[in-house]
Amino acid sequence: METALTRLVGVRHPIVQTGMGWVAGPRLVSATANAGALGILASATMTTDRLRDAVREVKSRTREPFGVNLRADATDAGDRVRIIIEEGVRVASFALAPSAELIAELKEAGVVVIPSIGARRHAEKVAAWGADAVIVQGGEGGGHTGEVATTVLLPQVVDAVDIPVVAAGGFFDGRGLVAALAYGAAGVAMGTRFLLTSDSTVPDAVKAAYLAATVKDVTVTRAVDGLPHRMLRTELVDALENSGRTRTLFQAVRRAAGFRRLSGLTWRRMIRDGLAMKHGKELTWSQVLLAANTPMLLKASMVDGRTDLGVMASGQVAGVIEDLLSCAELVARVMKQADEALWTLVRADA
Which domains are present in the chain? Predict the structure, then answer.
């Protein structure tokens, strides 16, 4: 199935595996690439040295195109961009809008730039700065998310920009791919669906928690870091939402101390990061402490398997996913379902 996305990045199928922190490592990315889709390596939770090693590991596992996701606001974003260029990575994906200068540097080196956005105005901005495509995530998507559903946001963005648009938030099968194409998208991006594959390194106990979840078990909460965050409802989330301010602060300090030991960060560094996050935002100190440690909250679940200590970012589709396929099986099934859906439409029209 050829679309503007497949032509732009050189993959066989218009499917993207998103750059999920602690999840989208070399094994998942290379398996996705070998299946004919675009795998995105998550770099925000890596040091620059680890990023270079991870890129080289992906290249040792596949000759297919893949991408790297990074935070545009990272203090070492320039160093990460240089690694992407030096290592010949095909695609640079951004969790936040990159500057015009970063986009220009990447494009001059032949790297395809695809920022992720959550609003029409953001898409218009990065398109004007030279982005090659955008991933637009609706409210159904996992992690930090907005309030506008994909079915409303996607056509707005498609109408607003002249670059390929990839739809994210609520996609898990071939019917969704066909629906996105009908809206004018050039493909779909999926996170939770790729997390729940046999190629994902997420611990089995955590995958089991996702598979056991219903649609109602996936919630949006501000209790973790003050921002809308879609995740599985857990004891930690309930405790944060139902505790008073004093108790919540106590829990945040206790958890921050535990994550400080895991991360090796000093209290001074954590407080400095917290102050930076609090600036200009109406966050409680409990939320500041947890926000500064959100990467470690995710690591506790996604790497260490501690569902009692961590959070599990999740799209709403977790409630309808029932199996753990390999990436090859998943992509093949999505494309088969898409073909069947298209033929059904053709026969109905005839």
Answer: 4-202+321-349 (3.20.20.70), 214-313 (no CATH)
